Amino acid sequence: MERLSKIGLVGLALMLALAACSKSSNSGTSSTTSSEATAAASAQASAAASPEASASAAAQVAQNGAAAADGGKVYQTNCSSCHQATGEGLVGSFPPLAGNPVVTGDATNVIHILKYGLNGKIQVAGHTYNGMMPAWGQSLSNADIAAVITYIRSSWGNKASAVTEADVAGVTQ
């Protein structure tokens, strides 16, 4: 019976991943919004997770500015259904982004994963994941990819530098 429950959870997780992958993004990032409005929207999106997530969102907005706030919106729309609003993922199904050395390491690696996807086994925080990260390079702009990477590299205790649109454009398959 426990095995059936696990299979059901994996099936549910896969359905959520497919639903997240099939969402179309409003990838047009507006540069005309004020920093205050952008920060407020990011804080609102993160508030559903926990008070700690809200505090973390406020800190990351201060650290990396509007790019991270815009990235919070992109993350909420495209990534949180798998990696969770807290960045903790789902053990065995979706790896955590919080405390993940790939996320905070060489930005080129995480840019490549986001643009072109990732298939196969990986190890994160002592757990094995054998799934598929969709390629977002066709559905998200380089600006949105830069913003969401900046967001994940500065959220949930992660402390890594911002990523620019030029950084994203420079990574090819």
3D architecture notes:
The protein has 173 residues and is mainly alpha-helical. It has one domain: Cytochrome c-like domain (Cytochrome Bc1 Complex, Chain D, domain 2), CATH 1.10.760.10. The chain has a two-stranded antiparallel sheet with strand order 1-2. It is globular and about 35 Å long.
Determine the fraction of residues in helical runs and give it as a percent range.
Answer: 55-70%
Q: Mind describing the biggest β-sheet?
A: 2 strands, antiparallel
Q: Name the CATH superfamily assignment.
A: Cytochrome c-like domain
* Intertermini distance: 44 Å
Query: How much β-strand is present in the residues?
Result: 5-15%
The helix-strand sequence is HHHHHHEEHH
Number of DSSP-assigned strands:
2
Count of helices? 8
Q: Identify the CATH architecture.
A: Orthogonal Bundle
In total, the number of domains comes to 1
Write the layout of secondary structure elements.
Elements lengths: L1 H21 L12 H13 L3 H28 L1 H4 L17 H4 L2 H10 L1 E7 L2 E7 L8 H12 L11 H5 L4
Helix pairs in contact: 2-3, 3-7
Offer a concise description of the structure.
By secondary structure, this protein is mostly helical.
Brief descriptors of the model:
mainly alpha; globular; 2 strands; 173 residues; Cytochrome Bc1 Complex, Chain D, domain 2; single chain
